[in-house]
Recover the amino acids of this structure.
């Protein structure tokens, strides 16, 4: 009986080992045939919240019958549903929301106020910081009441300020700002950063001693917009020009440029507060800074502090904007505004340096973004960024990556070991049985 059980156990072990070899071989074959785990992702954005058919239909219907992607009447909603998209009925059209924003811009300017189109609530949200007096707030409230009940008033703590003083610090006599994204006009390379950082002609350095010149501001716009172009002193951005530093010597490879959507998760990197994340809360925002009014901004709930100005905002490797200003800090939170990148690049006549571009150099692979608080690493504007890529991972991480051949090889190796072990155990058992029989027969 005992011998029968042993035979069953050995047979089951051999079958399991053979099965493991077949499974491991299949895993290796699939991994080799599929795209490598570290292949650069194609540029893509999360800018569209409706299906292609629905978005095209909404565009054809126009702003009188829509408010972003929501629609304002049941007839239009039926057309959207027949096109295969989901319709959301709202009371006020995009034309009404934009008309309200225009009326607010036409009112006497009140420093410390901001407003934006809130598509989710179908309202225009007006905010006033702690510097707005009671009389100014009452006067603006009267303007809002004259527009209609879809203009919502809200007081906030803190002060709306430009975040003078990103990912890497650049310094001049005007103050300290952050390098945003590297761009090129096809001949020379530049840093695209915030316009309020300094006027044309400002010279920027990579240290507070003035020993390492980064470049000079050659063009920009502020107020009205908030972007500027810093031309590299040597003309080129250098290696890893497509990488944004996020702290601890790590970086994110930028693969394209896009426009954000309300509710989208985004990341911001700055030299003061490091890497932070949050959500886009509104678009087409207007902010009345003490230095002047800026329009067309992206509003978010990502925190920022003085020194983060010009720093990059991105999502899944797609560049979205550069830090303009806001209120609050990273201890209690606040609202931060960003200059959209596509508008700035079009006005400046430049394009983004992205992964795979020939004139971007041989940049190192970058890690995926994750929320964090560390200040960016030691990589400076125009210098090679030290970022971990495929070769920087541990052997165990590479072997256990299900998109790699590692797991399949581990299964194959384990199955071979099990198969060899079962044959060795059987041979040892047969040897012992032979010795016992020989001893009994021949004494």
């Amino acid at each position: 009986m005992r011998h029968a059980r042993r035979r069953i156990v050995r047979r089951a072990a051999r079958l399991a080992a053979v099965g493991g070899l077949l499974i491991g071989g299949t895993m290796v074959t699939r991994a080799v045939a599929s795209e490598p785990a570290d292949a650069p992702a194609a540029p893509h954005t999360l800018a569209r919240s409706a299906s292609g058919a629905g978005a095209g239909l909404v565009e054809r219907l126009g702003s009188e019958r829509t408010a972003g992607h929501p629609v304002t009447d049941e007839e239009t909603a039926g057309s959207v549903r027949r096109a295969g998209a989901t319709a959301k009925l709202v009371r006020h059209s995009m034309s009404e929301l934009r008309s309200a924003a225009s009326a607010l811009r036409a009112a006497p300017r009140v420093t410390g106020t901001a407003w934006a189109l809130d598509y989710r609530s179908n309202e225009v949200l007006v905010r006033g910081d702690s510097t707005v007096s009671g009389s100014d707030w009452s006067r603006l409230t009267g303007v809002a009441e004259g527009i209609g009940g879809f203009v919502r008033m809200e007081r906030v703590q803190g002060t709306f300020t430009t975040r003078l003083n990103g990912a890497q610090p650049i310094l001049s006599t005007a103050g300290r700002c952050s390098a945003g994204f590297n761009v090129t006009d096809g001949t020379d390379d530049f840093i695209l950063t915030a316009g309020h950082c300094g006027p044309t002609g400002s010279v920027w350095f990579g240290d507070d001693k003035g020993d390492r010149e980064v470049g000079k501001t050659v063009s920009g716009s502020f107020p009205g917009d908030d972007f500027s172009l810093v031309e590299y002193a040597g003309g080129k951005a250098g290696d890893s020009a497509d990488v944004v530093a996020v702290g601890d010597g790590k970086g994110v490879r930028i693969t394209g440029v896009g426009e954000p959507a309300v509710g989208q998760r985004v990341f911001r990197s700055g030299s003061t507060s490091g890497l932070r994340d949050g959500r886009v809360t509104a678009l087409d925002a207007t902010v009345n800074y003490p230095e002047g009014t800026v329009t067309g901004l992206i509003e978010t709930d990502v925190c920022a502090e003085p020194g983060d100005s010009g720093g990059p905002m991105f999502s899944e490797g797609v560049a979205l904007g550069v830090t303009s200003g806001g209120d609050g800090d990273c201890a209690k939170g606040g609202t931060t505004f960003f200059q959209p990148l596509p508008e700035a690049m079009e006005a400046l006549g430049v394009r983004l340096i992205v992964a795979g571009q020939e004139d971007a150099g041989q940049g190192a692979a970058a890690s995926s973004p994750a929320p964090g608080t560390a200040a960016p690493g030691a990589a400076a504007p125009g210098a090679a960024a030290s970022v971990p890529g495929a070769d920087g991972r541990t052997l165990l991480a590479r072997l256990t990556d299900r998109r790699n051949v590692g797991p399949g090889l581990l299964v194959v190796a384990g199955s071979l070991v099990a198969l060899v072990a079962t044959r060795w155990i059987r041979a040892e058992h047969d040897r012992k049985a032979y010795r016992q029989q020989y001893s009994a027969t021949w004494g």
The longest strand covers residues 274-289. Residues 34-55, 358-399 have pLDDT under 50 and may be disordered. The first helix runs from residue 2 to 33. The CA atoms of residues 128 and 137 lie 7 Å apart.
